[in-house]
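One chain shown below:
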Amino acid sequence: MFVCYDCIGDEYYQRFIKNNGEPKRKCNYCKKTRRSIELELLANEVDEQYRENYEPKELGDGDTPSSIISEMLELDTEEISDDLVRILSDHEERDVRRGADALYDSGSLYGEKDNDYFGDLAERQCEWWYFFDKIKHKIRFFNNDFVTFFNRTFKDLKNFKYANKSPIRCIEPNDPESTFYRARIARDEGDEKIIQSNPSIELGPPPPHKAKAGRMNPAGISVFYAAFKPETCIT
């Protein structure tokens, strides 16, 4: 059984299929021949996010596994999610026989886990303001406290969802946002001619001896700054 990227609405899983699928495979659902992935492989990827975020719920306080997966993948119908649930139910059968909770029982209801990461809001706010103060007024670079803070805060970033969208975006060459803008100050007509004569070099990151301190770099460390809109560069 194969499913193509075009039968999936969620951007993350579309990219997963494009990156891991087989070219010119016939999709069992839309019957089109395009890059598709074996349903078993997609099920394994779905299982990771599902187990991380969902748990059994009381009657009337949840949804079926097929409905949840259908929403995760932004499917038009539950045909694909029904097949995924059958695969995942078979995978967990041995663990269920040993006493583990069933997570893909079509007759049970499931819902999002109670996430206690932000349970102690006051503690998280203190950590954030400590970080904010240090990066703004004290040590911006070479601070191991920041590494620890970011590793703890974003350790499960790939599993986060907001409005069913991943915060991680992969921009490909043909995407609308694949164009970046960069501006340089031309103090006179001579500067302008130099920049226009070789923009790939002149609009690139400055050489180290000319690199000034910026938001993310100290003086002498060359960094390329760009924006999605020309207005951002100008202002």
In short: The first strand starts at residue 2 and ends at 4. The radius of gyration is 24 Å. Residues 19 and 163 are 24 Å apart (CA to CA).
